[in-house]
Design a protein that fits this description.
Length: about 200
């Protein structure tokens, strides 16, 4: 992670997960918005936040790992599971790469719950290409999924804590690279430059 080449960019830190006790859930009364909620890291974040008493706004387009297609039933299925366990959940299936979608999502969350305490951005696509095989259209697509929505959510959410989480895969000794890596660092760099959020945790 530390060889990103972005001078002055925030460096990854290992997050310490602090759990509340049974009588005092850590996130009771808080509202947590999670993108990429239907699978992987996002789904695990939702499960943990729900267990700790959070009300949730879950967003997922339901596309495949390369960003193709959509299946709203995935995030709706997650919402049904969380509600069955006693959580309050709002669902969004927007494509956050579209202009205005992130701001609309934050507005919906505030209308539903009256507040947002944290935004957890886990949405992303995974496209492996060598640099010489990465055309402008592919690069633009990755930035549209990883960077712009995260920035737009941070700007719209204001003082909410912003958490950026992504799985990073290092391919040492090959010409392949994970497109999401540089987009991920791009978010961190933009957040630092513009000081949009009160808190930035990279895990």
């Amino acid at each position: 992670h530390r060889g990103s080449g972005l001078r002055g960019a925030p460096q990854p830190a290992h997050a310490l997960i602090v759990m509340g006790d049974a009588g005092s859930p850590l996130l009771a009364g808080k509202v947590v918005l999670v993108t990429g909620a239907a699978g992987g890291i996002g789904r695990a974040v939702c499960a943990l936040a729900a267990r700790e008493g959070a009300r949730l706004v879950v967003c997922d387009l339901g596309c495949d790992v390369e960003g193709n297609g959509s299946d709203p039933s995935l995030v709706r299925g997650l919402a049904h599971e969380l509600v069955a366990r006693g959580s309050e959940v709002a669902v969004d299936t927007s494509d956050l790469s579209r202009e205005g979608a992130a701001a609309a999502l934050v507005s919906m969350a505030r209308e539903r719950f009256g507040r947002i305490d944290a935004v957890v951005s886990t949405a992303g696509i995974s496209v492996e290409r060598s640099v010489v095989k990465t055309d402008d259209a592919l690069l633009a697509r990755v930035l549209d999924v990883h960077v712009r929505p995260a920035f737009a959510l941070a700007r719209a959410a204001g003082a909410a804590m912003i958490v950026l989480l992504m799985t990073l895969l290092a391919m040492v000794g090959t010409t392949g690279w994970m497109m999401g890596l540089d987009a991920f660092w791009g978010v961190a760099w933009v957040e630092t430059l513009h000081e949009v959020t009160a808190n930035l945790l990279i895990g």
